[in-house]
Design brief:
The complex is a heterodimer. Chain A is mostly helical. Helices cover about 70% and strands about 0% of the residues of chain A. Chain A has twelve helices and no strands. Chain A has helices at about 5-15, 20-30, 30-50, 50-55, 85-120, 125-140, 140-155, 155-185, 185-195, 200-235, 245-255, 265-290. The two termini of chain A are about 45 Å apart. Chain B is mainly alpha-helical. Chain B is built from 13 helices and no strands. Chain B has helices spanning about 1-30, 35-40, 50-60, 65-80, 90-125, 130-145, 150-165, 180-210, 215-225, 230-265, 270-280, 285-310, 315-319. Chain B is flat and about 85 Å long. Classes of the chains: A mainly alpha, B mainly alpha. At the A-B interface, α6, α7, α10, α11 and α12 of A face α1, α6, α7, α8 and α10 of B.
């Protein structure tokens, strides 16, 4: 390819190029709360990965002799009704939270994006059916939908994951649908269709990548919401397979002994809050760094 | 505007049909025979001859094709017949009339508090951007949207109920019976339910207010020499409220979701607690009725929000 003399001149007119990654990093890390959230998430992943080394005691084995101990040197947060160390259970609970969060978000994203892409790209009757079905699902408060579906399926952690996925699919479908509608109108999509490219190719190679920034922000924020919802379900007693440790269930167990040792209930609740806060803040930071126009929309 | 309303109504009707289908068929996903579940809970399953089960099946209409069952269920609902609760041995519609007012009492209060204080907090934070008020309010809104509602309830109960003993820790009394006691009992539950919506409204209000105050017409209002109060209240407020209204539609669903936890923590006999106990008691007729009624309320509120949105912002109507 021969570059005309004008081309070089045009390049000279451009402002000095800042690498995209550098710009992203600068904006992303510019707010203190975002950095704080990021640190919490790194610590969370670290805790979940090395739970076996970090936990001072076995989180599952009951030791009735030392039930409901006050916080002390041996047990910094005290022990629960079965004499299990609260700190160790808190550490192991991070695994439950992260596992449920990541799997549910992955499942809901894949299904929701697919539905949104199909509805937005093809339009017509398919669009009406899919989007009205999503509207119908959105009529049920997320936590209630998850609660009913999980209990109908029979509880257990895998059914909680299924329930939370179903409850969050409409959100992804709606956002993807809206994005697809606007991206579809671009000339490059039109050109692609004029060349006779098939629909799947156009959707996956041209529409999806352009819809990615808002979707990644939505996923991050949904991770927090899912973890909050999972905590809610396990607080109500749905989804934990004893002796597994889940933060919501720990809050409920502690609630029954609020006067004896409030830390039993306070500590796991604080953990839930910090993690949800962290995902929200990192989502906020990603939004500002990837596409500031999304402010107020996500 | 009429065309817009009609379009929205037709859409809502279609969604309503889908809602009935979801509620009906999710309950049919249940493993096992509804009659067996019913019998196992009411009487001695072993003692029951198989013919008896068939009779029961016929009585509940379960021997008919599934679409006929669905049609019967829907026509029952429109006559206010939700079936009979297995556990309470009571008409579900009566049970709903008993429990819904309790949740609505708390929920409506929470919604109002969330709306009024949320909008006010967001407005003040935006007007005093970067000042100490903003620096207090904005971080608090972050806390408000992330705090688990059940945990907040427990914290309040511990502080004001158990330690300071200012407020009763649980129970519910109708304001008709004893207004003072009722008010004291609902303070903590209502605060727990309201906090999320309050914080979300404040956040939305702050950012939309900041956006609106950048607009030319606001600058014009300033340059006319109007006082700050006039500029904000007369010119900026109305337009910045528009996005907040959508949020209030979502807020209704969130409040119903929160009622499940708040009513569990504070032992309040509303629908939220009834839903949880019915789920554990496998009283699915009740679960069906509650989820359906809540979904319809959310649907109607969002329809109203959508229509009023079209009224506030003509761009939506013709879009």
């Amino acid at each position: 390819m021969v570059a005309g003399p004008n081309t070089d001149m045009e390049f000279l007119e451009l402002p000095p190029r800042v690498s995209e990654w550098r710009r992203f990093r600068r904006v992303f890390l510019s707010r203190g709360v975002v950095v704080f959230g990021l640190i919490i998430l790194v610590l969370l992943v670290f805790t979940a990965a090395f739970a076996a080394w970090l936990a001072p005691y076995d989180p599952y084995k009951p030791a009735v002799g030392r039930a409901l101990q006050q916080p002390c040197k041996d047990f910094p947060l005290g022990t629960d009704t079965l004499g299990r160390d609260t700190l160790s259970r808190l550490i192991y609970g991070s695994r439950t939270a992260l596992m449920v969060g990541f799997i549910s978000v992955a499942v809901a994203t894949i299904i929701g994006i697919t539905l949104g892409l199909i509805a937005g790209y093809f339009g017509g009757m398919i669009n009406v059916v899919i989007m009205r079905l999503m509207d119908a699902l959105l009529c049920f408060p997320m936590i209630l939908l998850a609660l009913v579906v999980a209990s109908v399926l029979g509880g257990g952690i895998q059914n909680v994951i299924i329930a939370l996925s179903i409850a969050t699919i409409p959100g992804y479908a709606r956002v993807t649908h809206g994005l697809t509608l606007s991206i579809r109108e671009n000339d490059y999509v039109l050109a692609e269709r004029a060349m006779g490219a098939d629909a799947t190719h156009t959707m996956l190679r041209h529409i999806l990548p352009n819809a990615f920034p808002p979707l990644i922000v939505l996923m991050t924020m949904q991770l927090g919401n899912i973890i909050l919802a999972e905590a809610g379900l396990s607080f109500l007693g749905i989804g934990i397979d004893p002796p597994g440790a889940a933060w919501g269930a720990m809050v409920y167990d502690g609630y029954k002994h609020l006067l004896r040792n409030p830390v039993l209930s306070f500590a796991p609740g604080l953990a839930i809050m910090l993690v949800v806060f962290a995902f929200n803040m990192v989502g906020d930071g990603l939004r500002d760094a990837l596409d500031p126009r999304l402010r107020g929309l996500l | 505007m009429t065309a817009y309303i009609i379009r929205r109504l037709i859409q809502a009707l279609f969604v309503l049909i889908l809602v009935t289908l979801i509620v009906f068929f999710v309950m049919r996903l249940l493993p096992g025979d509804p009659v067996l579940i019913y019998v196992a809970q009411t009487a001695e399953l072993e003692a029951m001859p198989p013919e008896m089960l068939d009779i029961l099946r016929a009585e509940f209409g379960l021997d008919k094709p599934i679409m006929v069952q669905y049609a019967n269920w829907v026509s029952g609902i429109f006559q206010g017949d939700f079936g009979t609760s297995i556990f309470y041995r009571e008409e579900v519609s009566m049970l709903m009339l008993e429990r819904f007012p309790v949740t609505l009492h708390l929920g409506v209060l929470a919604l109002i508090i969330g709306a009024v204080f949320g909008v006010l907090a967001g407005l003040l934070a935006a007007v005093r951007r970067g000042k100490w008020l903003d620096k207090v309010v904005t971080p608090l809104t972050y806390v408000g949207i992330t705090i688990p509602v059940f945990w907040l309830g427990i914290l309040l109960m511990y502080a004001f109920g158990l330690k300071l003993q200012w407020l009763p820790i649980s129970g519910y009394t109708s304001p008709m019976d004893d207004f003072w006691l009722s008010t004291r009992q609902v303070i903590m539950p209502v605060i727990s339910m309201a906090v999320f919506g309050l914080a979300a409204n404040a956040r939305q209000m702050r950012s939309s207010m900041l956006e609106v105050t950048q607009q030319d017409y606001v600058r014009t209002a300033w340059s006319k020499g109007l006082s700050e109060r006039k500029v904000i209240v007369r010119h900026a407020l109305k337009n910045s409220l528009i996005p907040v209204i959508t949020l209030m539609g979502i807020g209704v669903g969130i409040i119903f979701g929160g009622s499940v936890f708040v009513e569990t923590v504070f032992a309040i006999p509303g629908v939220g607690r009834l839903l949880v106990s019915s789920i554990f008691g496998q009283d699915y007729v009740v679960v069906q009725a509650i989820t359906f009624i809540i979904a319809v309320i959310v649907l109607v509120v969002n329809l109203i929000v959508d229509i009023s949105y079209g009224w506030f912002d003509p761009r939506i109507r013709y879009g």
